[in-house]
Amino acid sequence: MNNNNTTQLTLGAKVKNARKAAGFTQEQLAEKLGVSRQAITKWEADKGLPDIENIKLLSKALDVSIDYLLDDENELDMSVMREPVSLGDYDYKPSFSGRWIKKVGKKDMVVKEKYPDCEIRMLMAQQINTKSEKIVDNLIGFLTDAPFGIPEFISGCKNADNEYYLVNKGDKQLLVMVTEEFIESRQLSQKITGKKFVIGQLRFTDCGVLK
What we know:
Blueprint: H1 11-22, H2 26-33, H3 37-44, H4 52-62, H5 66-70, E1 80-84, H6 102-114, E2 119-127, H7 131-144, H8 150-158, E3 163-169, E4 172-178, E5 182-187, E6 196-199, E7 202-209
Antiparallel strand pairs: 1-5, 2-3, 2-7, 3-4, 4-5, 6-7
Helix pairs in contact: 2-3
């Protein structure tokens, strides 16, 4: 989440935070990467840097982007909880007062069931292209006169089947994602106050309170 008043995280701090969020010990992460535990310790203490191959392995093992690991402006939000869901267990009938798309309405029901006494705000998410994707995107737009290029279109489709919500639970704020298979709740390290904000590689727009 971008915030000019927050302290930028080092690569080591990001690896450590992401490892804890993924539920790995240093030994478990080292085993996944095929390196020693001492190597993980050095990386997390910023006493050594992983090479590009290990950066790729860290990205995959910890489910974070390479851009996140290498970009000083991103922060990882902590306390991630994921639970399986079955949309088939929910009976949603589209109406004038609710969502028109049945699948989206069912995801609304999932998050309301999980957080019944909380304010739930609907979010619209847009993928932020990496630097290389932006270059290709601009090139395609220049060559074809298209309003946007293929990478932007593909990025926009990446999260098409996911619904995002901002949940205010007491003094905590959660970013919640509901897919067809699970609900993932991520406690935010910084409170969101604006209508538009960025977390990781996603740009969000607050679409109002879920009724």
